Structures
1.
Amino acid sequence: MNLTDELKKTLRIRVDYTNMTDKYLGDKGYSAKQLDALQPTAQKAYSYVADNRGKDELFMGWTELPYNQDEIVKDILATAKSVREKFDTFVVLGIGGSALGPTMAFNALCHLHYNDLPKEKRKGPRFFVEDNVDPVRMKDLLDVIDVRTTCFNVISKSGATSETMTQYLIISDLLKKAGANLKDHLIFTTDAARGNLVKISNELGGVKSYILPDGVGGRFSQLCPVGLLPAAVLGLDIEALLAGAAYMDGLCKTGDFRKNPALLAATLQFAAMKDGKNIGVMMPYSDNLRYVSDWYAQLWAESLGKNVTLSGKACNAGQTPVKALGVTDQHSQVQLYTEGPFDKVVTFLSVDQYKTPFPIPKGCENIPDVGFLGGHTMEELIQAENKATAFALTKAGRLNYTISLPEVNEFTLGQLLYFFELQTAYTGAMLDVDTYNQPGVEAGKKATFALLGKNGYADQKKELDGAASDPKYVV
Ligand code: PA5
C-alpha cells in the first residue's frame, strides 16, 4: 500500500463511546464527573505501560514490534516468495497465541472462500491453520492435502506444547514415509535458543527458523514472525500491517484517556468491570472480522483473568469475552443483551466501506415486507442493522461502544491489533495484575503431561487418578 500521510488519516480507526455516557443511557451511563474521577487511574496505567515499553523481562517486547523488524520482514518476504513458488498448500501447526493471529489475518484480509478459489485467483497457496488435536480434523485435513506439496509452519515458543508437537510428530512421520526431505517442508517459528524445536532443527540439519522473541508472549505475537510469515505467504502486505500498528501507537501517546483511543477503551472497560459488568461482548458487523473476536478473546481472557494482584493480594480479576457476529447474532443473542442481566459491555466493530457493496435488486414490490429492500445495497442493510442494534441496546440502558474501521485492510487491521494490545496492557495495569503470565494454562498443560505418562509427573498422575469421576454422579 502506498501509505501517504493523507491516506493514513483517512484510514484511521475511531472509537465512539457516546453510548457509554449518561447523555443517552441516563443513570446507566457514565457522567463526565464519573469519567473525570477515572483520569488518575488511567494516567497511572498509561505511565506504567509507557515506562516499561520494550522490556523483555516484563514481556513487553511486543510494543516495539512495529519498529524493530526491518531485516526480519525482508527475510520473511523472501521466504514467502519461495514458499509460493514451491508449494500448493501452507499449513500452520500451532495453538493459542501461535494460531489465533494467523487465522484472524487470513480471514480478515483474504477472500472468505479463499481455499475454494482457483489457483490463479489466489495470491498464495491454499492455507490451513490446525489448532486442535481432534483426530477427525487431522484425518480430514490429510484427505485434502498432499504432504509432498505442502509447507508446514510449526509455531511454538516452547516446542513442548502437546497439541502442536503431536501434530508435528504426525506430519514428520508422513513426510518421512512419503520420502520427502523434512527440512524442505518445514519452517519453525520458535524461541531463539531454548525450546525443543531448536533441538529438532539441529537434528534435521537446520530447518529454516524464525524467532519468537523472548519478550513477546504468545497472545501478543501476531506482529512478529508468528503472524507475519503466514500473512506474507498469503501475499498480504505485512509492511502495511506493521505501519498500521505504528500509526495506532502514535495515536496513543498521552495519558489523557479522552485523547488516547486505547486508553479510553481500557478506562471504560475498567469502570464497567468495577460496576459488575463481567462480560465483554465483541460483535463485529463483518464476516471478515469475525475471528478478531477469537483472537481478542484469548488476549483479554488470558491476560486479565488472574487470582492475585501484582502486590500479592488475592483477587478474581477479569471479564469474560463473548463472541458474537452482527447481524447473525441479532437473531440469537441480542435478546439477552437487551433484556437480560445488566452484566455486559458490548463492543461493536463497524466497517464504513465494505470490500464490495452488493446491490439488492428490486422485486416483490407488491409485498411491503420485502419490496422496501430492493434498490438498497447489502452494505446499507448491514450498517443500518448495526446502528439499529446499538440504538436498541442504548434505549434499553445497555453499555456499548463502537470501533469503526474505514475499511478492512492491512493498515486498519494493524491499527486494530495494536489498539487491543494496548487496551489490554492498560487494563491489566489498572487491575494491577500480571498481564503477561498464564499460570492457569500451564496447570492444564501439566495435567495433560501427567495423564499421558510424561516422566516427572507421577505424583500429579496419582492425584488425577484419585479425581476420577464417581459413577454415583453419572446419570
Ligand atoms: O498466549 C500464550 O502464551 C499461549 O496461548 C501460547 O501461545 C500457547 O499455549 C502455545 O504455546 P507455545 O507457543 O509454547 O506452543
2.
Amino acid sequence: MNTKKNQRIFFLYWVLLAYIIAALVFWFITLNKQNREMSELKKESYAITSPKYQEKIAAIEDEKERKIKQYAGEGTTFLLVILAGAIFVYWAVRRQLKISQEQQNFMMAVTHELKTPIAIAKLNLETIQKRKLDEDQHQRLINNTLQETNRLNALCNNLLISSQIEAGGYRMEKQELDLSELLNSCVDDFTSRFPGRIFVNTSPGIIVKADPVLIQICINNLLDNALKYSPKETEVMAALSTSGGQAVLQVTDNGPGIDDKEKDKVFEKFYRLGNEATKRAKGTGLGLYLTRKILRRHRGSIRILNNPGGGSIFAVQLPAA
Ligand code: ADP
C-alpha cells in the first residue's frame, strides 16, 4: 500500500517538474520569436533610401542578438534554480519516506519484541499460581521468566540509550573501567542462562576509560547475537587481550557467518539479514547499530571477520587507559 502511495507521489512530482521545465522552454521560444518579429518590423519601418540605413539595420541586429543572449542567460539561471530546488525536494521527500518506513518496521518489530516476553512471563506466573508443580518444574518456569525479563530489560536499555544518544541527551560518565572484570561478569550472566555454551579467555586487569553502562550494553549485544544466531550445540568464545595500546575483544561464534557485502549493512539502524537464522531469532536490528555508535563515541571501533572454522568474529578495539 505504501509503495503504491509513494509511486503516486513521485509520479506527480515528475509530471509537475516536466510541466515547469516545458513552460520555461515554451517561454524562451515565444520570447525569441517575439524578438525576431520586432526586429523585422523595425527593419521594415526604415526605407532603404533613408540616411544611415545600414547603421540602423546593424543596430537593430545588435539589439536582437543582445536580447537573445539576455533571454538565454535568464532562462539558464531559472532552469538551474528550478533543478536545484527539484533535487532538494526529491532528496528531502525520499529521506522522509525512508524514515517513516523505518519507523513503521521498527514499531512492528518492537511491539512484537515487547509483547512476547510479557506474555511468556505472565503465562509462567499464572501456571505457578494455579498449579501444584514439583520443585524442578517450578525452577524451570522461574528461570524461563527471568530469561524473558532479562531480554525485556536489554531491549528497553537499547531503545532508551539509542534515543537518548541520538537526541544528544545522554551524558557519558567515563571512568577507569576494568574491562576484564566486566567481561567476566557479563559472561557469567549468560552462562547461567546458556550453560556450557559460552567461554571466556581474558588477561586480567585490562583497563579502559569508558562509560560502564554503555560498554556493558555493547558486550551484551555481541554475546547475545553470537548465542542467538548460532546453533544451540555450538560454542561461543569471548577473548580479551591488549595490542598496541588497544584493548581487543573478540567474540567468536560458529553460526552462519555474515556475507562480505552485508558486513557494513548490519550496523545500520533496524537492518536485519534475511536468512533463516535471523528469521528464527528474535530481534529489532538495533543492537549492532547502537554498539558501533557507542564504540565510536569512545574512539573505538568494531569490525566483522570470518571465523576460519565457519561463523563470524566480532572484533572490538578500545583505547586502553
Ligand atoms: P538484532 O539481533 O536485534 O536483529 P543486531 O543489530 O544486533 O539486531 O544485528 C543485526 C543483524 O545482523 C541481525 O539481524 C543478524 O541478521 C545479523 N547478525 C548479528 N550478529 C550476528 C552473528 N553473530 N552471526 C550472524 N549474523 C549476525
